[in-house]
Write a sequence for this structure.
């Protein structure tokens, strides 16, 4: 009976630690969509996901997009009483670029690769597509975390911004 409890506790510990450490370089690509089966809340499942969260702001998004124009965007996450933060953003059209070494870009997505400790703010560029024939959708997922390397006690925020 004691052996069963020890083995059960060890397996649970491996699962929780594995989930927290499975993506040490940042959120898995594609996890910014809250409707996706594999999103940020899938791993940081403790607590309710904050959909359309006002804690996320995206500055520099134009009201009207000019084809081929590059915009400097600033992503902010208000993270009261949390120790660290990170994010993943995707865009339906155009491309991101990053000048900072703590950001990584891949196919219309950008993510933080190192946690922000005090101020959760990231600056990066987005270049509009050469032809504008519809809306552009930015999907952002951000994690306000307690830095205990587990899936527990973190707050996942999602927000979508649409420009026509």
């Amino acid at each position: 009976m004691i052996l069963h409890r020890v083995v059960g506790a060890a397996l649970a510990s491996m699962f929780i630690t594995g989930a927290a450490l499975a993506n040490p370089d940042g959120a898995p690509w594609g996890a910014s969509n809250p409707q996706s089966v594999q999103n940020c809340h899938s791993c940081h499942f403790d607590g309710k996901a904050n959909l359309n969260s006002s804690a996320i702001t995206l500055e520099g998004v134009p009201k009207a997009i000019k084809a081929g124009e590059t915009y400097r965007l600033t992503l902010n996450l208000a993270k009261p009483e949390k120790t660290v933060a990170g994010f993943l953003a995707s865009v339906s059209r155009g491309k991101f670029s990053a000048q900072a070494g703590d950001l990584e870009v891949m196919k219309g997505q950008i993510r933080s690769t190192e946690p922000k400790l005090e101020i959760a703010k990231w600056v990066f560029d987005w270049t509009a597509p050469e032809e504008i024939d519809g809306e552009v959708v930015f999907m952002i997922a951000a994690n306000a975390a307690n830095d205990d390397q587990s899936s527990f006690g973190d707050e996942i925020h999602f927000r979508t911004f649409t420009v026509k």
Q: What stands out?
A: The helical segments are 2-21, 40-43.
